[in-house]
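User: Second chain of the day. Same drill as before.
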Amino acid sequence: MIVNTQTGRVLYLSPTEPGKTHDKKVADQQQIRYPTAATLGKDTGFQGYQPAGVFAFQPKKKPKGQALNCLDKFFNRLIAAVRIRVEHALAGVKRCRIVHDCFRNTKADCADLVIEVACALHNFRLHRRHPSPTLNLLDFCSDSYSE
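Assistant: Same format as last time:
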C-alpha cells in the first residue's frame, strides 16, 4: 500500500498475497512506477528496495552492542513523524472490520475486492471530511484599524 503522507489517501494497493510472502518480493514483482523525484519512506520490510529515480529513506537500526548517535536518533524521530500518517491511513482502512479480522471467504479475487472497497471507503471518508477552519487574526483586527 502506498499512502500520500500529506493527504493520508491510499494511492496504490497491490494485489493481496499470502502472509508468508515477503513485502519486498511483492514490491519487486509489481514493478511500481513512481513519479520523478518522489520520496519513498520505507520500513524494515523493504530493506534493499531501491527503485530508480526515487529518494528512499528508512530508519537507522541500532548497531549490535552500541547506541545510536544523536544525529541518527534525530533522523529516526523525523521519519517516525512522517510514518505516523501512514499508520493512521492503515488504521482508517482497518476501520472496516472485515479487513481487520481473519478473512475466511475462499472465492477467487474476493480478498482483493474487500481490501479495495475498504481503501475506497477510507479515501471517501477523507474526501468528505470537513477541513479544519483556518483562523486569521488579521480579519478580526482589520475593522478596528480601518476606523
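The helical segments are 23-30, 70-93, 97-100, 110-128, 137-146.

User: Great, on to the next one.
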